Amino acid sequence: MFTLIIYLQYISAADSFWSGSHILSLWLLGVIFDLMALLLLYVIVQCLTAGGSSPAAGYARQRLEQVAGVVNRIDYGALWFAGTALAIMVLITFVSVISRAIYKPLPDDITFAEWSLVLLASVMLGTLQGREDHIEVTALSDTLSFRWNLYLRAFACLVGLAAVGRLCMVSFEEVPDSFLEITYGSIYQLPAWPPRIFFMIGVAWWLTRIGIQTVMLPVLIQLDMRNALGTFDPLPLLSQSGTGEGELGELDIDETTTGEPGIGGTRGT
């Protein structure tokens, strides 16, 4: 769907100054957007029955946990990618400082450091959202019951969908416009569009993870009403507790395989 829209609105009427890399980047965005949309659609279909007590609901929850396993591997890939970007940024800064003291700084060192920072921030947006490891102010939510916390999180996800969805629209409109731009201050006149592509992918993945949480929270609410939360561990799609306890590590796997309650355990109302 997104690939077709991008083709009809942009690629089929490409400007004369667009190169093959410009068109390829738009195709890449379209394919990635479609894959994210399919993932979200699959989760929505499974969530339609996952909150019940029937065998079909149990199978749906198992399929959601399988999806969580795939997303967990994606998160590990994002972690390594972001770590590589951070290492490159630190290495460029270190070498440039040494070069500045000896002779002169590396050409475009600031530009590459800025690009690495964009990669580091954008790639981790979806991972942090899915595992709810972002900073939270819980002065109000700490006074509420677990079920009301779920309602509050669902409302926050709806607000996040609107805000991040708008950010996606604005960011995508700037991608074709950046094909003619040169990075400000670049000695070798490096293009401005590569970091915008990565930022667009990161924000779209962030929006997808918020959408997944929005449709999965009603499942947690239904399971909580039946005191069956301990039978379902949806990390890293969604944390039961919402307290940022979904760190990347072997702990998630150990708790699942040993039969103990997942992150957040079983809470009453």
From TrEMBL:
Q: Where's it mainly located?
A: membrane
One GO CC annotation, please? plasma membrane
Q: Where is the composition biased (Acidic residues)?
A: 248-257
Q: Which residues cross the membrane?
A: 23-45, 78-98, 110-129, 150-172
Residue span, Tripartite ATP-independent periplasmic transporters DctQ component domain: 89-209
From the Swiss-Prot or TrEMBL record, state where the protein is found.
Answer: Cell membrane
The UniProt entry lists membrane topology as:
Multi-pass membrane protein
UniProt cross-references to InterPro entries, sorted A to Z:
DctQ
List keywords of the entry alphabetically. Answer: Cell membrane, Membrane, Transmembrane, Transmembrane helix, Transport
Q: What is this protein called?
A: Tripartite ATP-independent periplasmic transporters DctQ component domain-containing protein
Where is the segment annotated Disordered?
Answer: 248-269
